[in-house]
């Protein structure tokens, strides 16, 4: 089948999609966007988290056809999304979203395989709640497994992103 | 800048600037930006025009003869390019293995564990490959399964491997034992007479999975010269190469290996997984072949942590001094040897823990069974032993009426203590101090769940399941400390290679560091750049991608990479520095006497004297020349353990960590919440404090996981894995993981580069027994099995 969808603000099209393919597979293998990760492909780890019409979903559990005509944001689009949200700049200018910079600065990235999914989830949480408590952060990120960090630096990163956001940095 | 005449020689002297980003600073990862933007290319992200997808058919039974394999229907499937079985292997080399080559590339006549590879398929779509594999008809004649020590050593036991010719077979009492290591020192019988109290215990350690998030995957690309280029996630490129090339019938220089992005490892990538299968299919079809496991397959696709039964007897005098330790550690190695011999070596030699005790009688064995193969995982051998000996120390303290921390401190080893192997501990061993520090950390406040709006159930056992608002919740506190060896032991030639190049680019000096070190997330690439900046005084350092065009860097395991490959990078930098200074002397030596007389350093892009006088700019010293050195570097040698007594200087270095766990247990439902997991660790020298703390917190969490949730459940009747998914095999989420304060101690080991001590594994040891100890403290139950299940807490068994 042919699939039409919007990914990171751009209309995209994929041909010869087998009906059983997941949105994750189409993003990774057909649209050249391997940033969304394939750690479990069973909806348990959150590494494939993308936003589908704004809502965080495990893209491994979304049949590609379900994304027809819809809007997808992946980790590759987080910087643009942040820029649009803050009303500045034009899409395509290379820069990091605040939450991406915070993950680097706080040491929240080790192997990095969980990072894209965590970034999409954390970014969405901070959009809803710019000043989360620790318990709020843990609850919001509880669907994203990380095996390297023990989550402490991830907590630090989200707190840092929130603090910088409140300072308008 | 000093004034520079045309010949480039400074005429006035000034202070050199320190180069930033050297060792000891928390510099940020060079791959950080790529990893947060999604651009970092992991092994499962590899893509090639016209590539095929490989898929592996695995056995559905644990132990069986293969009566027949019919690949006809699979081959006839549209889109399928190749189906290969044992009969299609191109050479006489059909097995591989880290130490013992007992693992078939594809099963031959027999399968020995559930999920063993039987056939491989290449097709133009992953689903086509999967469906074709499902059409391969394999007829099995099932054999009895060996699942534990009793069945393995029974008089009529089936042999898991019939015709062993490995170098351990001569000293094991039964062919279903991979390796046995006794360690005997002193006179246990006499020491036992001196004991005022004796405590015994039997402990069970469950099978843990590494659960790295990046699945086994890679891309094999056939090359025009008949060779193959493999882009792969691994822990040791050259070890893979040594095992892959003979099976393919290719010389090693025709198997090119490049490290693709590695999504974690934790020991699970020491053994081969899909490497040979992808190369075979690529060479057979002449097309690039990508293989990516899903999580289900990943649970079958790599070795796990050895489950173990551990039997301990500790004796002590009334004042708490250990008289003796006896123990027997039975590790289940599963169907193939993998790293079992080394796991036995660690479990036995580290079996009494970081304590001074002169009279010991230790035995460790690893079994061959039909359970899933077990091998390397973070802290191997030492992890299982620590769980048991620390439970014993608590038991002994209770019997003596002593404080459990004080009992440990009374018996703590220190520099100069002899190990059970007779090896003196010849660098700092601050065991008592680590316990003191971790105990001195402030305790987390009580009843943190209480707020003005009632109980925040998210901070209680059971969480959002809303099972308690504090009723039946009891707090417990537990301590543990452990000892881990660093580096490959028992006489292994554990070297690393580094190639370092300095040249001028864009008008400034630039250093390139090229090693084959597998960056698996630990931050070795960060540290290599820091070492180069410190040694060569150059800010711009490029880390070349890891591949087999440079010599071996050894394994990213055994907490060894910063020590050994870091040591190799430092060594190569020193050699580069000598050559650069030689160049400088040739060019500018006549302009200033200090070139001949002073101790010269490279700092801030300049040649400076140890007094800080600038002699020349590196740009001028180098000119158009590039200085490049590739060199191997070794730590001091070790020796094998005596096969009968276990005596020998077998280890390179020891690493110590202590934990304090605070838990809250819903005693009515058996639910546990770990509130805080504090750690104190001696790291010798923190080359990158941010990364070191990340290692400690990550390692502690893996220890927490195996304490309260992680276990691969194998059916004892069928030897089949029952929970190969993240739905049924649970690893800690951010909700299960507490705050983890870390106290770093930096006591230099003068034998090691910069005094550093391997960091990665020690925190995985003591975290598990500390959590168990805290749960025992809360419940009063003996709790001799890990992981803890709710029913253990509500029924008291085991």
UniProtKB/TrEMBL annotation, chain A:
* Start and end residues of each 2Fe-2S ferredoxin-type domain: 1-78
Task: Answer whether the UniProt record assigns the keyword Ion transport to this protein.
Answer: no
Amino-acid biosynthesis keyword on record: no
Annotated keywords: 2Fe-2S, Iron, Iron-sulfur, Metal-binding, Oxidoreductase
Gene3D superfamilies in the record, alphabetically?
3.10.20.30, [2Fe-2S]-binding domain (1.10.150.120)
Q: What is this protein called?
A: (2Fe-2S)-binding protein
**What organism is recorded for this protein?**
Streptomyces edwardsiae
């Amino acid at each position: 089948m042919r699939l039409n969808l919007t990914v990171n603000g751009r209309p995209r099209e994929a041909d010869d999609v087998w009906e059983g393919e997941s949105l994750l597979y189409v993003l990774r293998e057909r649209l050249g966007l391997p940033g969304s990760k394939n750690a479990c492909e069973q909806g348990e780890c959150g590494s494939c988290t993308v936003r589908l019409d704004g809502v965080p979903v495990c893209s491994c559990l979304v049949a590609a056809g379900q994304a027809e005509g819809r809007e997808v944001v992946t980790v590759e689009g987080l910087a643009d999304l942040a820029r649009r949200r803050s009303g500045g700049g034009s899409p395509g200018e290379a820069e990091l979203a605040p939450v991406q910079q915070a993950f680097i600065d706080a040491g929240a990235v080790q192997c990095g395989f969980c990072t894209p999914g965590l970034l999409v989830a954390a970014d969405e949480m901070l959009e809803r709640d710019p000043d989360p408590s620790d318990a709020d952060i843990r609850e919001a990120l509880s669907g994203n497994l990380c095996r390297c960090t023990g989550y402490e630096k991830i907590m630090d990163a989200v707190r840092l992103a929130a603090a910088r956001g409140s300072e308008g940095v | 800048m000093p004034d520079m005449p045309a010949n480039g020689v400074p005429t006035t002297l000034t202070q050199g600037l320190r180069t930033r980003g050297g060792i000891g600073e928390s510099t940020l990862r060079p791959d950080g930006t790529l990893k947060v933007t999604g651009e970092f290319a992991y092994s499962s992200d590899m893509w090639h025009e016209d590539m095929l997808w490989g898929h592996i058919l695995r056995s559905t039974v644990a132990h069986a003869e293969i009566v027949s394999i019919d690949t006809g229907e699979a081959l006839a499937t549209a889109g399928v390019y190749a189906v290969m079985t044992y009969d299609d292997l191109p050479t006489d080399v059909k097995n591989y293995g880290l130490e013992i080559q007992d693992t078939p590339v594809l099963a031959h006549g027999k399968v020995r564990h559930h999920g063993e590879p039987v056939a491989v398929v290449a097709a133009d779509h992953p689903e086509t490959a999967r469906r074709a594999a499902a059409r391969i008809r394999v007829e099995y004649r099932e054999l009895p399964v060996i699942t534990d020590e009793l069945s393995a050593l029974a008089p009529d036991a089936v042999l898991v491997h019939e015709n062993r010719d490995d170098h351990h077979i001569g000293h094991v009492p039964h062919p279903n034992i991979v390796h046995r290591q006794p360690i005997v020192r002193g006179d246990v019988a006499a020491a036992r007479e001196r004991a005022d109290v004796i405590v015994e215990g039997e402990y069970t350690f469950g099978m843990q999975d590494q659960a790295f998030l990046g699945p086994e995957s890679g891309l094999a690309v056939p090359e025009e010269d008949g060779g193959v280029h493999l882009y792969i996630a691994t822990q040791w490129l050259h070890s893979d190469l040594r095992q892959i090339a003979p099976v393919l019938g290719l010389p090693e220089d025709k198997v090119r290996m490049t490290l693709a992005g590695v999504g974690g490892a934790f020991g699970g990538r020491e053994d081969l997984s899909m490497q040979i299968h992808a190369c075979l299919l690529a060479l057979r079809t002449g097309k690039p072949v990508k293989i990516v496991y899903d999580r289900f397959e990943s649970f079958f696709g790599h070795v796990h942590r050895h489950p173990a039964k551990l039997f301990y007897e500790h004796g002590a005098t009334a004042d708490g001094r250990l008289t003796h330790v006896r123990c027997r550690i039975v590790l289940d190695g599963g169907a193939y040897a993998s790293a079992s011999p080394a796991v036995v070596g660690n479990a036995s030699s580290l079996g009494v823990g970081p304590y001074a005790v002169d009279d010991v009688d230790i035995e460790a064995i690893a079994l061959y069974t039909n359970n899933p193969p077990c091998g390397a995982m973070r802290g191997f051998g030492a992890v299982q032993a620590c769980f048991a000996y620390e439970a014993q120390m608590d038991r002994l303290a209770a019997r003596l009426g002593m404080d459990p921390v004080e009992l440990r401190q009374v018996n703590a080893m220190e520099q100069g203590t002899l190990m059970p192997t007779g090896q003196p501990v010849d660098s700092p061993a601050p065991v008592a101090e680590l316990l003191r520090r971790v105990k001195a950390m402030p305790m987390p406040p009580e009843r943190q769940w209480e707020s003005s709006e009632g109980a925040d159930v998210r901070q209680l056992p059971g969480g959002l399941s809303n099972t308690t608002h504090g009723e039946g919740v009891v707090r417990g506190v537990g301590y543990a400390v452990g000892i881990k060896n660093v580096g490959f032991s028992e006489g292994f030639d554990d070297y690393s290679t580094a190639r370092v190049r300095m040249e001028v680019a864009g008008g400034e000096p630039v250093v390139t560091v090229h090693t084959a070190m597998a960056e698996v997330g630990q931050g070795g690439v960060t540290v290599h750049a820091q070492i180069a900046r410190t040694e060569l005084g150059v800010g711009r350092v490029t880390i070349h991608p890891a591949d087999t065009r440079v010599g071996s860097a050894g394994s990213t395991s055994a907490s060894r990479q910063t020590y050994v490959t870091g040591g190799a990078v430092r060594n190569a930098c020193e050699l580069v520095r000598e050559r650069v200074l030689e160049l400088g002397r040739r060019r500018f030596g006549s302009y200033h006497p200090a070139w001949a007389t002073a101790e010269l350093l490279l700092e801030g892009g300049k040649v400076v004297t140890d007094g800080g006088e600038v002699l020349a700019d590196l740009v001028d010293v180098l000119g158009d020349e590039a200085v490049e050195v590739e060199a191997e570097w070794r730590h001091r040698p070790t020796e094998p353990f005596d096969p009968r007594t276990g005596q020998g200087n077998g280890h390179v270095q020891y690493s110590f960590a202590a934990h304090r766990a605070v838990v809250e247990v819903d005693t009515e439902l058996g639910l546990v919440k770990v509130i805080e997991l504090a750690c104190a660790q001696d790291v010798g020298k923190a080359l990158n404090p941010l990364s070191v703390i990340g290692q400690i917190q990550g390692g502690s969490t893996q220890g927490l996981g195996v304490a309260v949730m992680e276990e691969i459940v194998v059916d004892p009747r069928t030897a089949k894995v029952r929970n190969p998914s993240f739905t049924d095999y649970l690893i800690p989420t951010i909700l299960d993981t507490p705050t983890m304060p870390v106290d770093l101690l930096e006591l230099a080991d003068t034998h090691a580069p910069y005094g550093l001590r391997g960091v990665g594994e020690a925190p995985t040891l003591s975290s598990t027994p500390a959590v168990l100890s805290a749960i025992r403290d809360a419940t009063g139950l003996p709790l001799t099995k890990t992981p803890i299940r709710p029913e253990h807490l509500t029924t008291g068994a085991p």
